[in-house]
Design a protein that fits this description.
The protein is built from two helices and no strands. With 75 residues, it is an all-alpha fold. Belongs to the UPF0337 (CsbD) family.
């Protein structure tokens, strides 16, 4: 995950939490829900990036295993 992605996701989580608290304090259920949604969105983006990186790592490992297997067959 890049620094920009981490910052963007953290920004969503913090802004979402702030809106949620603001909504609770003012009794604005719409603002509270908006904050919860934004906070959830920031957390979800973290999960997507982590999953994407895991898939990329597995694909690279599989590629290297196949490459090593082909190299061994050539010997």
């Amino acid at each position: 995950m890049t620094v920009e992605e981490k910052f963007d996701n953290a920004k969503d989580k913090i802004a979402g939490k702030a809106k949620e608290v603001e909504g609770k304090v003012t009794g604005d259920k719409s603002r509270e829900a908006e904050g919860k949604a934004q906070n959830f969105f920031g957390k979800a983006k973290d999960k997507v990036v982590d999953a994407t990186e895991a898939v990329k790592d597995k694909a690279e490992d599989a590629f290297e295993a196949v490459k090593d297997g082909v190299d061994n067959l050539k010997k």
